[in-house]
Amino acid sequence: MIKVIAIGDVHGMWPELWRVLKATAASTPGYAPTEAVLSGRYRVVCSGDLVHYKDARAYAAAVGADHYDFEDRDHLRRAAKAQIRELYRFKDFVEASRGNVQVILGNHDEAAVKRNYELGTRGGLMHHEFDEERGGVALPPDLADWIMSFPREVVHHGVHFAHAGPTVGMQHFDDFFYHDPDTKTWWHEKPDLVHQAGHRFGVYGHTVMKSGIYVDKEHGLAMVDALGHTQFLEMFLADDRLDYSVSAL
Asked: Residues with Cβ < 8 Å from 201, sequence gap 6 or more?
């Protein structure tokens, strides 16, 4: 049996992420994996989207300004460097975990590396900080390679973890992904997709859960993009066991 700590999309919420990792005894106070993680008794699965703050207020705090301007080259550089610093800290943690901390590739992560799609918020804020052509700072090659090494899905004892959903189309971030409404709505309109895909349970991020982690026991799924609430899903898994609970700090 293993204990899995499932954490939703990060989007630059590094203080919240480390609070969860430390509170669950996955990280030491010095940002290192604990013995429980190193031994494999605890696993951590993060649904990805490490990069790009969720709103202008978070960007402003990161760059030390009253207001964030995504067309200001100085703001872009500062926003990029603030994230790069924290990405290296988390990279060290993940790489020291002996494979027991897994980060799933999110669409924002891939876009920050490939810069093949321009992403932004519904409020019109654009995520240009890693675009050199716009005055930002490109992710260093070692960070870019690390991010692109993230798996698109992880399975533990029949429980499926992916960024956006259970189907292959929801795990590849192309035109279909960005234009298919199912990507954001499947979990309440087509929840049977988890079992149809052959999974006993599914854990996904991508869609912000404004009221906190959403669990559909009937259809066997949890939507965990709720790190802003410092919420996470604790799971105890074996081939003959599937127990889970929503926890919050």
From this structure: 158, 159, 160, 194, 220, 221, 222, 242, 244
Q: Which of 9, 91, 97 is nearest to 47 (CA)?
A: 9
Give the pLDDT confidence score for residue 1 in this predicted structure.
Answer: 96
DSSP state of 27: B
CB atoms closer than 10 angstroms to residue 132: 12
Q: Which helix (H) or strand (E) holds 23?
A: helix 14-23
Among 89, 104, 96, smallest CA distance to 37 is for 96
Q: Which domain holds residue 152?
A: 2-248
Residue 216: the pLDDT is: 98
Which domain CATH number covers 190? 3.60.21.10
pLDDT above 90 for 178: yes
Q: How many domains does the chain have?
A: 1
pLDDT class for 122, splitting at 50, 70, 90? Answer: confident
- The Cα 50–Cα 143 span in angstroms is 12
Q: Which helix (H) or strand (E) holds 57?
A: helix 56-63
Span 60-91, pLDDT tens digits: 999 999 999 999 999 999 999 999 999 999 99
Distances (CA, A) of 38 to 8, 33, 162: 21, 6, 23
DSSP β-bridge partners for residue 202:
160, 221
Q: What is the pLDDT of residue 68?
A: 97
